[in-house]
Design a protein that fits this description.
The protein has 197 residues and is α+β, with helices and mostly antiparallel strands. Helices cover 38% and strands 15% of the residues. The protein is built from 9 helices and 4 strands; from the N terminus they run ααβααβαβαβααα.
């Protein structure tokens, strides 16, 4: 799989990708799991509110929780996530602790925490596939979350590798080249971008 970047980047950022195919034979050890969620813990956040929360199910340790999370994913994601040894739900606390007001940056900060998690996972040889295909209301009810907590995302975590029973069409997605829009499309103001082209 080609991985071109227009500018030199740290190898972890070049290597990071979101596979659909996870090796079902390789478990994620507890030390690595703790470390990647520790990385999430140290992400930046508005007012240092740290509004991210995760519910994590690990095959072979808490199969019931893993199955519960898996059952809350949309059907299109269940076909490939069934091979991931770890599944997690990404949740935000929507209000600030210090004043009870709505935290408009909560989703941004969940994304930052999950990005930190993903980079640490990459450093450890793991892969993370984040997804929005979650039955959020059903998840909220299934885990009896309070009104200030909202489920927004899910993460599949494990080792990239062939899953023998994976649908060939889904497996083929992992062979596609990684592509991104050019910088000129995402930086709406900044003369330095024009100077690079």
């Amino acid at each position: 799989m080609k991985n071109p970047t227009e500018q030199p980047l740290h190898s972890l950022l070049r290597q990071r990708w979101s596979p659909y195919s996870f090796n079902p034979q390789r478990e994620v050890n507890e030390g690595d799991l703790l470390a990647i969620f520790e990385a999430a813990r140290w992400a930046p956040s508005a007012f240092n509110a740290q509004p991210w929360r995760y519910i994590v199910g690990v095959k072979g340790q808490d199969d019931g929780l893993w199955e519960k999370i898996h059952g809350l994913l949309v059907v299109g994601n269940q076909g490939w996530t069934r091979f991931a040894p770890v599944l997690a739900l990404g949740i935000v606390k929507t209000t600030f602790d210090h004043n009870g007001k709505p935290n408009a940056a909560a989703l941004h900060d969940l994304g930052a925490a999950s990005a930190h998690l993903t980079v640490e996972a990459t450093a450890r040889g793991l892969a993370v596939h984040q997804m929005g295909g979650v039955q959020t209301e059903a998840a909220h009810q299934a885990f009896e979350l309070g009104p200030e907590l909202q489920v927004h995302t899910a993460l599949a975590i494990g080792y990239a590798g062939p899953a023998p029973e994976l649908d060939p069409d889904i497996a083929q997605r992992d062979q596609r080249n990684r592509e991104r829009q050019p910088l000129e499309n995402i930086i709406l103001g900044g003369s330095f971008v024009a100077e690079m082209s």
